[in-house]
Design brief:
Blueprint lengths: L4 H21 L7 H15 L12 H21 L7 H29 L4 H11 L22 H16 L1 H15 L6 H34 L11 H18 L4 H14 L6 H33 L6 H23 L6 H9 L5 H11 L6 H31 L10
Helix pairs in contact: 1-2, 1-11, 2-11, 2-15, 3-6, 3-10, 3-11, 3-14, 4-5, 4-6, 4-12, 5-7, 5-14, 5-15, 6-10, 6-13, 7-8, 8-9, 8-10, 9-10, 9-11, 12-13, 12-15, 14-15
Length: about 425
């Protein structure tokens, strides 16, 4: 990669240009920006044979840290732009998706991973945990609009809040997969005592502490920014977005909780303070621009990785295709309908919420993070990368084509705010 550094910068520059001109050039075309950037990257990877091969097994640390930054910026942006108040009747669809749909996705994919691909138990659970959460980065086109615009119908709000929270709530299952793999790697059996330790520490403590840290950081920072002395007007929005992200994430990780949860909750808590202030719009704009740039870099690199794999003859068995389509067309929609059953929502909104669960950069982060722990076999790691990459690629194109049509059937309406 180093010897092609300048050419790689040129490729990224073209990808950024796609992002700048996309709203004008492709306004009426049935394609999304992620589709365009991944396709561009795939062509570069397939035809640019002098580029060093992007091996995720040897560059896992770089993948982990780059995708981690992108997800964090996306979580801040998602939390800041939510206008909807914290009321049970408004958040009930989100809670059901988190507590019902996501576990269904995890265990269904773990089952398929174990029996269809021959993965070990830990690797199968990791497959489910990495693919179950919807992606807050690539889902920006189907989320709510900027702060105080009133563009929050039930479908868009639910998809936004789900993507903001399930990235952190999938982490306990990632740790479960790591602990199982570690136990078998050391020649031990995963006992009931280990399971209880996982539940009390990785589930109860880390989720609870992440929520508390998020609320505290968001409220304290908001009190400082919107004090009578500053009024938030003369303070750089860029510094505040970065500070909010790093403070919430850093404190959460310091107390051994989930930083992803803390960052989203901190952004939402910050938004609840002086919620009509136009300063939130400035914060959102900065976060959105930063997210777009980072997303372009990751998507083009991901496309290059896919293109290089195709060029080198990586085997994609019929099981990979079938499992990918089963997950995207059956498991997620069925799980969504089960979660939303009984709620008084129009059928079109239920279908839109259930069908539009895009997978993307968050999956790459979870996968690289877990594999970097060193407890999974190389055979399992290769299978995981192949399956997850195929699901992400398929998901990007399916949602790019279907999302505009589905959301047209769910008209935007104002939501009550604080």
């Amino acid at each position: 990669m180093i010897e092609n550094y300048n050419l790689f910068l040129l490729v990224c520059g073209i990808a950024f240009l796609f992002g700048a001109l996309f709203p004008i050039m492709f306004k009426r075309a049935p394609i999304s920006l992620p589709m365009l950037q991944v396709s561009f990257g795939m062509m570069m990877g397939y035809w640019w044979t002098t580029l060093s091969f992007l091996d995720p097994l040897n560059h896992g640390f770089i993948i982990e840290k780059l995708t981690e930054i992108v997800v964090l910026v996306s979580l801040v942006g998602a939390g800041i732009k939510i206008d909807t108040d914290l009321a049970w009747r408004l958040w009930r669809p989100t809670v059901r998706l988190l507590l019902i749909t996501m576990p269904i996705g995890i265990f269904a994919m773990a089952f398929l991973g174990y029996y269809a691909f021959g993965l070990s138990m830990g690797a199968a659970i990791l497959l489910g945990a990495a693919l179950a959460p919807t992606d807050p980065v690539l889902a920006s086109s189907i989320q709510v609009g900027p702060p105080n615009t009133g563009g929050e119908d039930t479908a868009r709000f639910t998809l936004t809040s789900e993507a903001g929270l399930n990235d952190g709530l999938a982490f306990p299952f990632v740790y479960l997969a790591i602990k199982i793999a570690e136990a078998y790697d050391k020649g031990q059996r995963f006992s009931g005592e280990m399971l209880w330790s996982w539940f009390t520490y990785d589930v109860l403590w880390k989720i609870g502490a992440g929520l508390v840290v998020g609320v505290m950081v968001g409220k304290i920072l908001a009190k400082l920014i919107f004090s009578k002395r500053t009024h938030g007007t003369a303070i750089s929005q860029g510094y505040v977005v970065i500070a909010l992200t790093l403070l919430a994430y850093g404190v959460a990780e310091y107390v051994n909780s989930y930083g992803f949860i803390a960052v989203f909750v901190a952004a939402f808590a910050f938004r609840r303070s002086e919620w009509e202030n136009t300063y939130h719009q400035k914060l959102h704009d900065f976060a959105e621009q930063s997210e777009g740039l980072l997303m372009s870099l990751v998507l083009v690199t991901f496309g290059i990785f896919i293109g290089q794999g195709l060029q080198s003859g990586v085997e994609l068995t019929w099981r990979v295709y079938i499992v990918s389509f089963i997950f995207l067309f059956l498991i997620r929609p069925i799980g969504g309908f089960i979660a939303l059953s009984g709620l008084k929502l129009p059928r079109t909104e239920k279908y839109a919420i259930s069908a539009l669960g895009i997978r993307g950069i968050g999956t790459l982060y979870y996968l690289s993070y877990a594999l970097n722990q060193g407890f999974f076999s190389e055979d399992d790691a290769i299978k995981l990368w192949v399956v997850c990459s195929m699901v992400i690629l398929t998901s990007i194109f399916i949602h790019g084509i279907r999302a505009p049509k589905l959301l047209k059937k769910t008209p935007i309406k104002a939501k009550p705010s604080a």
